[in-house]
Amino acid sequence: MRPDSRQPTPRIPLTGLLDVALEALLAEFRVDLERSEFADIRPTHGCVFRFVKGEGMRLTRLAELASMTKQSVGEVVDDLVDRGYAERVPDPADRRAKLIRLTERGKEAQTLGFGIFAEVEKRWIDRYGRDRIEQLRETLEAIVAVESPDAVPELERQELANV
């Protein structure tokens, strides 16, 4: 049976577009990261580098923010501890609990990683236009603010609630 040429081409599902765009962004990120002294960092490590700041956080909170199981995040943390990027230290609020925090090397890698993401975004601005990338960012921030505000603690909910 021949397809009807009058039928419109089906649209690519939004999830597919978002997945492919994310993969493209991460591929550019990986190229830059692999040229650095932190080439041993893997994509799975991102759940720690994205969320752990300052004095650190408990594994349960990290797993919650990363939308992963405690066991999975624990394995990532173990790997980062073995590689010298993270450490477990007693929680001053509860000596029985441990905080996950970045070592100096981990902080350097985190700073570089955030810098690489900023550079990739700048390249995308050059490639696709500032207005389009800013609109994409604003749209995604508005969606996150409404659909899953706790998933991105970096965003200021007060600003996004007015979008």
Textual characterization of the structure:
With 163 residues, this protein is mainly alpha-helical. Helices cover 60% and strands 9% of the residues. The protein is built from seven helices and two strands. The protein has helices at 14-34, 46-51, 59-66, 70-83, 104-128, 130-147, 157-161; strands at 86-91, 94-102. Strands 1-2 form a two-stranded antiparallel sheet. Strand 1 and strand 2 form a beta hairpin. Helix 1 crosses helix 5 and helix 3 packs across helix 4. The longest helix is centred in the last third of the chain and has 25 residues, at 104-128. The chain is globular, with a radius of gyration of 19 Å.
Can you tag this structure with a few keywords?
mainly alpha, 7 helices, 163 residues, two-stranded antiparallel sheet
A few lines on this structure:
The protein is mainly alpha-helical and 163 residues long. It has helices at residues 14-34, 46-51, 59-66, 70-83, 104-128, 130-147, 157-161; strands spanning 86-91, 94-102. The protein is globular, with a radius of gyration of 19 Å.
